[in-house]
Predict the structure.
Amino acid sequence: MKRLSRLILILAVFSILMIVISARQQNKINVPDEDGNTNISDENEAIAQENNDNSNDTHNSEEASVDNTDDSRDDNSNDSSDNNYEDLDINPKVSLKENVDYLTIDKPLIDFELEDLNGNKIKLSDYKGQIVFLNFWATWCPPCRAEMPDMEAIHQEYGDKGVVILGVSSTELELRGGNDKEKARQQVQEYIDNEGFTFSIPLDSDNKAVREYNAIYPMIGIPTTYMIDREGIIRYVRSGAFQGEEQLKAFIALLNE
């Protein structure tokens, strides 16, 4: 009987001790202030403050990202406005057939900087935003001479509307394998002056441009024309002379799509 009483007493004391410990732990988490409001513990307050700081950093980062995006849009807008040409409303009278009148290339242009007959620096990438007919030719080539009046007519009509004619003259093409740069220039200058053509004639004196574009699509003869869209992509190539001004207009309409 005494053992039972002693066991009951021990259990009672243990129960009271557990109640006291539990009450102290509860007071550590939620401690009422003078107004009866409950405050979180220092550890939880630190965690909450850290989360709040992270939230502010994330918010500021998002705002900075939005600001940078807006700046980027403004920069892109300014860049595009430099070469902003209206879409050309052309209704060509002739149709074009792929693999007959042209081949599709769809490769980025290879940039170059050449000097034309007037001493101007011609950098191909400067014409981004315009349609470019990059024509390789020579004065001794009958088909080349035959198409030049049509290219001049296109230059006169659309030159200020975002269509560029570049008649590149390579030394080795002009001299049929020769390398006399000055002789090649004189022959081209004399021909252009006599004919009165006004579109740009860049001089590929070192033959670098003709070789680079020959690597894109082999020139099986001249004239060969690489047609470049407003984004600087070589869309099409044509071997042989254009069949009149209307065919050139049809290509402009195709590149303008």
Summary: The longest strand covers residues 163-170. The chain has seven helices and ten strands. Residues 147 and 248 are 10 Å apart (CA to CA). Residues 2-28+50-80 form one domain.
